[in-house]
Amino acid sequence: MELDLKKGFTTSKKLTVAITASLLLxxxxxxxxxxxxxxxxxxxxxxxxxxxxxxxxVERTKVSTTGMTLDTGETLNRNQVTFFVIAELxxxxxxxxxxxxxxxxxxxxxxxxxxxxxxxxxxxAALVNAGVAPQNLREYFHTYLMxxxxxxxxxxxxxxxxxxxxxxxxxxxxxxxxxKVTINPRYGTWDSVNATIVAAPLASGSVKK
Length: 209
Description:
Elements: H1 5-28, E1 35-39, E2 42-45, H2 46-60, H3 73-96, H4 103-116, H5 123-130, H6 137-156, H7 161-179, E3 181-183, E4 189-191, E5 196-198
Antiparallel strand pairs: 1-2, 1-3, 4-5
C-alpha cells in the first residue's frame, strides 16, 4: 500500500495544533480571561499592565534617558506584573500583622522623595529611571512604606539588618503560598521560592515589545 505523505503530514499538523491548544487551555485554566495575575481573590488585569507599560514608554520620550538602564519588551511587562503582585502580597502580609499605611503618609513620602531628587521638575526623570508609571506613583510609595514598616516590625523582633531582605522575601513567599498566586503564562511563571515572576519559554514573543 502506498504511503500518503501529504495526508500523514496534515494529520500530524492537526495533532500538533490540538496539543498546543490543550496546553494553552491547561496553563490558563486557573487565570481569568483578562487577568495578568491573581493573588487570592484579587485580580490584576492585563489592561492595567498594558496601560502602565504604555505610560512608562511615553514618559521615556519626555526626558533624557542617557545613562539609564531601562527594561524593554517582555522584561518590562513581566517586571510590572511582578510589582503589582508583590504590592498585593505585602498589603496582605501587613493586614495579617495589623500594619497599615495611611494616605497622608504616602503624600508625605512623595513630597520627601520629590525634594530629594531635586524638585518636581526632576521627578519625571527619576520615575523613568525607577520604571514607575506616574499613574502608579501612590501605589509605588504605599508599597515602599509597607515594606519599610514590615522591616521595622521585624527589627523590633530581633531580625538583623543583614537578614532583613531574605526574611521579607521568605514571608512574602509564604503569603503567596497561602493566598495562591497564578500568573498568565504570557508574562512568565511564579517562582514560589524566590517570590517573583520568572521568564518562561511561552512568554517569549507573546508579549508586545
